[in-house]
User: Which sequence fits this backbone?
C-alpha cells in the first residue's frame, strides 16, 4: 500500500491520459468530452480549495483532491457507449466511475483500504438526491465536500446557457425541451422549499429552478459565499419566467434567499477531524 500523497502525481497523469483517450474527430462528442475534462480539472481544484478552507490536514487535502479527480471518471465511458450524459437514459455515472477505477486505474488498488473506502463512498454519493445514511463523520464530510465542489462548478458550466436565446446553443447532451416555462410540480417544490427530482426535468425553466433548489443542499458556508459572489444566484433568478405562477415563485425566492443568508452567516466551516 502506498501513501496517497506519493500516488497523486501518477494518478493525475493517468487521469489526464485517460480523458484524452476519448478525444475524437466527431465535433459534438469532442465537445462533451472537453466539457467533462475541464469540469474534472475545476472540481479537483475546488475540492482541494474547500479542504483548505475547512482546515483539513494534509491527508484530508489529498483525499479531497483524489475524490475530485475521479468523481466523474465514468462520464467518458458513459458518453462513448451511450452518447448521453443522462443517467436515466444510460446508467448511473457514479457507479460507472467506480467501475472505471476498479477495472482500469492501475493505482487505485495501491491506495490504503480505509482511504479507498472513503473515496468510493464520496464518489458513490456525489450525484444522488441526498447522501445515504452514513455514521462515520469522515465519510459524511467527504461526501458533502465533493457534492459542494461539483455543484459550484456546474453553476459555471451552465451559466452561458441561462438566457433563453442561448438555450438553442446548448449542446444536445445537456438540453431539455426548449420551453422557458417551469413545470407546475417544480414550481410547487420551489415554493415549499424542497428539492425536486432532477430526473423529472422537462423544460429549460425546470433546469433553472432545479439549480436554485440545489442551494438547499449546499453544505458549507464557503461554497455558498462563492456561489453568491460569482453572481450565479442573481443570474438564474433574472432568467426565470416570473410571469408564470408569480406569487408562488416569489414565495419560493424569499424563502430561498433567507436560507442562503443563514448558511453564509453560519460562517464556521472548520472541521475538527483528523483525516
Ligand atoms: Fe458527476
Assistant:
Amino acid at each position: 500500500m502506498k501513501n496517497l500523497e506519493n500516488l497523486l502525481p501518477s494518478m493525475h497523469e493517468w487521469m489526464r491520459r485517460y480523458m484524452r483517450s476519448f478525444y475524437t474527430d466527431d465535433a459534438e462528442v469532442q465537445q462533451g468530452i472537453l466539457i467533462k475534462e475541464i469540469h474534472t480539472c475545476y472540481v479537483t481544484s475546488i475540492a482541494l480549495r474547500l479542504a483548505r478552507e475547512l482546515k483539513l490536514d494534509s491527508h484530508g487535502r489529498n483525499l479531497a483532491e483524489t475524490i475530485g479527480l475521479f468523481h466523474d471518471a465514468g462520464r467518458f465511458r458513459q458518453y462513448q457507449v451511450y452518447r448521453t450524459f443522462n443517467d436515466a437514459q444510460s446508467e448511473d455515472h457514479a457507479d460507472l466511475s467506480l467501475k472505471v477505477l476498479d477495472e482500469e486505474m492501475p493505482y487505485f488498488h495501491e491506495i490504503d483500504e480505509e482511504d479507498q473506502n472513503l473515496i468510493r463512498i464520496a464518489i458513490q454519493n456525489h450525484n444522488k438526491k441526498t447522501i445515504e445514511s452514513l455514521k462515520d463523520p469522515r465519510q459524511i464530510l467527504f461526501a458533502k465536500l465533493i457534492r459542494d465542489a461539483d455543484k459550484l462548478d456546474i453553476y459555471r458550466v451552465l451559466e452561458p446557457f441561462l438566457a433563453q436565446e442561448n438555450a438553442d446553443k446548448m449542446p444536445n447532451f445537456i438540453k431539455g425541451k426548449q420551453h422557458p416555462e417551469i413545470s407546475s410540480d417544480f414550481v410547487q417544490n420551489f415554493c415549499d422549499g424542497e428539492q425536486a427530482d432532477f430526473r423529472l426535468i422537462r423544460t429549460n425553466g425546470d433546469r433553472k429552478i432545479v439549480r436554485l433548489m440545489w442551494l438547499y443542499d449546499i453544505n458549507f458556508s464557503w461554497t455558498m459565499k462563492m456561489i453568491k459572489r460569482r453572481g450565479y444566484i442573481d443570474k438564474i433568478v433574472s432568467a426565470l419566467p416570473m410571469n408564470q405562477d408569480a406569487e408562488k415563485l416569489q414565495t419560493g425566492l424569499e424563502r430561498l434567499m433567507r436560507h442562503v443568508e443563514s448558511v453564509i452567516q453560519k460562517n464556521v466551516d472548520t472541521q475538527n477531524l483528523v483525516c
Remarks:
- The mean pLDDT is 90.
- The longest helix spans residues 27-53.
